[in-house]
Amino acid sequence: MDSIYTPTATAAPNTKEITMEIPTFLRIYKDGTIERLQESPMVPPTLEDPTTATSSKDVVISNNPLISARLYLPKLTPTHENNLNKVPILVYFHGGGFFFESAFSQLHHKYTNLFVSVTHVLVVSVEYRLAPETPLPAAYDDCWEALKWVARNKTEAWLMKHGDLNRVFIGGDSAGANIVHSMAMRAGVEALPCGVKVYGAFVSHPYFYGSKAIGSEAVAGHEESVSFVVWNFVYPSAPGGVDNPMINPLVHGASGLAGIGCCKLLVCTAERDELRDRAILYYEAVKESGWQGEVELFQVEDEDHVFHIHHPQTENAFKMLKRFADFLRN
């Protein structure tokens, strides 16, 4: 099957001078070379995954700028093949701090195959542009373009034949969950093409932060924390820095959460996630905002940030998958 992905090259050890580093994640060298230290290798789509029976293919959403996606389709019953019962559409945004990982990576491909087989939805996993090559807010714009592409698409066979445009969801993990919040707020004030609306959204282990430590966050060294440093790295021109509403949706002056542009919202977190308190505070703020939709909180005990992506076969990961399935199908 045709693919847009580019195979990952094996890099030789780099002995050049380092000018900027996010330890364990990224190095930038004096000659401008960027080395991502935790990237999963790229893999092609599969017509029918041998483990999950999920099929996938790559599509181009825009050529300028280049935005693409990997579509995932569950194994369909004869009823679905006869077009009598279309499946929900999930537009998914991967995590990776806005500067690494990919919709085409082995890590996310394996997880999304399993996700689709359990939830039985059609997934559009968006390949948005990354910092530092393309700093924020480009990723937000790319993801909005992808959402519009889904809404107005009249030519993509899987979407046309099997996707239910009355049940369009958005979802993401970590930085992807941050994007989900931005898309949901934008959908509250800006119409999608063809009258399509976002029905629901899930924010899983969302990357939210702020200039003041909250909850269990350490006060000492707060400005040196990875979450603080990463935001200033991926969006150096952000008005307000780490108190920009894109990263701190509860900051004074941010758009009211009552304007979230969907009907239902699921907030997921994990007990040992260092961003947990931000997710819980976000959930509580939405609940108290006067928003007319339904909001739920789902927390998994004794687990860390995005554990379900890295260890999808564990019992707790399956608990999350079942919760996602209930949210997307009911």
UniProtKB/TrEMBL annotation:
<feature type="domain" description="Alpha/beta hydrolase fold-3">
    <location>
        <begin position="90"/>
        <end position="308"/>
    </location>
</feature>
<comment type="similarity">
    <text>Belongs to the 'GDXG' lipolytic enzyme family.</text>
</comment>
<dbReference type="InterPro" id="IPR050466">
    <property type="entry name" value="Carboxylest/Gibb_receptor"/>
</dbReference>
<dbReference type="Pfam" id="PF07859">
    <property type="entry name" value="Abhydrolase_3"/>
</dbReference>
<protein>
    <recommendedName>
        <fullName>Alpha/beta hydrolase fold-3 domain-containing protein</fullName>
    </recommendedName>
</protein>
<dbReference type="InterPro" id="IPR013094">
    <property type="entry name" value="AB_hydrolase_3"/>
</dbReference>
<dbReference type="GO" id="GO:0016787">
    <property type="term" value="F:hydrolase activity"/>
</dbReference>
<dbReference type="InterPro" id="IPR029058">
    <property type="entry name" value="AB_hydrolase_fold"/>
</dbReference>
